[in-house]
Design the sequence.
């Protein structure tokens, strides 16, 4: 089961920096992210979402592959597999892109927008859905980071330890177990 963690930051670029660092930690197998979204609220109070997964591109690429295969097979029946391959690929890519743009994966977009509207102007928030994590090593990488835990699905003690680590990373101990 995944845990939701939402952390707010005073600067608009801070959530992006943290997400980049989390992605590098993901390559080291220290954290397994299911989904991540950066929310930025600009000077005028408008909320901008930056999804970490482009579902339209994923849908288009998978639709292209399956459409090309099915198109090639149907083209064999009509003795023109190349035309079937090209036509099937084009139709598959279009259908996959459409289904990808309509899909919602991971954290609910309406939840993100409603919570994002509560952060102050000229600030940002990071929404992460974490499958697995090595908390001691991950928190050590973010020493000196200042953030506020806005919402989590962690246990109260893990949430408290996380907030302590974000508030004063030099004196806080990392959360025990996984979060």
Sequence:
């Amino acid at each position: 089961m995944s845990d939701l963690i939402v952390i707010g930051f005073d600067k608009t670029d801070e959530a992006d920096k943290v997400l980049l660092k989390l992605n590098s930690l993901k390559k080291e197998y220290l954290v397994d992210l299911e989904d991540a979204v950066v929310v930025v609220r600009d000077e005028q109070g408008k909320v901008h979402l930056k999804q970490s997964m482009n579902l339209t591109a994923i849908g288009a690429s998978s639709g292209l592959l399956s459409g090309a295969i099915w198109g090639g097979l149907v083209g064999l029946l009509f003795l023109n597999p190349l035309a079937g391959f090209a036509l099937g690929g084009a139709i598959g890519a279009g259908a996959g892109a459409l289904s990808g743009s309509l899909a919602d994966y991971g954290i609910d977009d309406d939840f993100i927008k409603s919570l994002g509207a509560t952060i102050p102007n000229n600030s940002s928030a990071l929404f992460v859905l974490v499958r697995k994590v090595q908390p001691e090593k991950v928190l050590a990488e973010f020493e000196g980071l200042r953030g506020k835990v806005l919402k989590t699905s962690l246990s109260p003690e893990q949430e408290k330890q996380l907030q302590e680590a974000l508030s004063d990373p030099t004196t806080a101990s990392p959360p025990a177990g996984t979060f």
Remarks:
- The first strand starts at residue 3 and ends at 9.
- Residues 55-77 form the longest helix (23 residues).
- The radius of gyration is 21 Å.
